[in-house]
Design brief:
elongated
Length: about 220
């Protein structure tokens, strides 16, 4: 009874916690303390062979999760990486830990897009470029679309600098009179999650391009 009560309490807290990046959710993914980007003790340097295995696992995981989504299994990753599943688990103790590493990589890439967008003197053009480049990458990554739609990744967005760059870019676009004044940074994850949902249902580029164009038009200043 006590265990069941605790489980229900945790579930209620998760559901009522709100969100920073993505839809409100009941599913969370925790970073493992012993992997790069995790909290806690720093990771010890890897031997050359272990480092090569990790790189092979990450490369395989990117492809497997992109194709199969979050339902992909560690066995699938091991098979594609041509290593034993035990090797995968030595580097990434759970599927959530491995998926978190892949998601962090993708957000770091998008943060790079945002920094490049800030170099555009026309902030609206820079903003649209960021959205389109991000969407094009998401279109070939099913797992990332699912993660953004159903979990809160606000911590990674902050840590990669994406949140700060996006805020600056949107403030500039507003000051230039090209982005509607009531637009906020929280509109963007919802927009991207919506685009990702369209991609999963209608993967044809012509379809989701149309919907993304409509959504961006809705953010344009009158």
């Amino acid at each position: 009874m006590e265990l069941e009560f605790r489980f229900r309490l945790i579930k209620i807290r998760n559901l009522s916690s709100g969100y920073k990046w993505g839809y409100p959710h009941s599913m969370t993914t925790l970073r493992h303390p012993l992997i790069p980007g995790g909290l806690g003790c720093p990771e010890k340097p890897l031997r050359a062979d272990a480092r090569r295995n990790r790189e092979r696992i990450l490369k395989a995981a990117r492809a497997v999760f992109a194709d199969q989504g979050i339902e992909a299994q560690m066995d699938d990753v091991a098979k594609r990486a041509k290593v034993g599943v035990g090797t995968v688990y030595r580097h990434y103790p759970t599927k959530d830990v491995l998926l978190e590493a892949i998601v962090r990589e993708r957000f770091e890439e998008i943060a790079g897009f945002a920094r490049e967008a800030l170099e555009n003197p026309d902030a609206w053009d820079g903003f649209c470029s960021l959205i389109w480049r991000s969407a094009e990458r998401n279109a070939v990554d099913r797992a990332f679309c699912e993660v953004v739609a159903f979990t809160d990744k606000g911590d990674i967005v902050e840590e990669t600098g994406l949140a700060r760059s996006l805020e600056t870019l949107m403030d500039r676009a507003k000051a230039q009179g090209k982005l509607r004044a009531d637009a906020t940074e929280m509109d963007i994850p919802i927009l991207m999650a919506g685009a990702g949902s369209v991609m999963r249902i209608h993967p044809e580029a012509a379809v989701w391009h149309r919907y993304l164009t409509i959504m961006l038009d809705g953010l344009r200043a009158s």
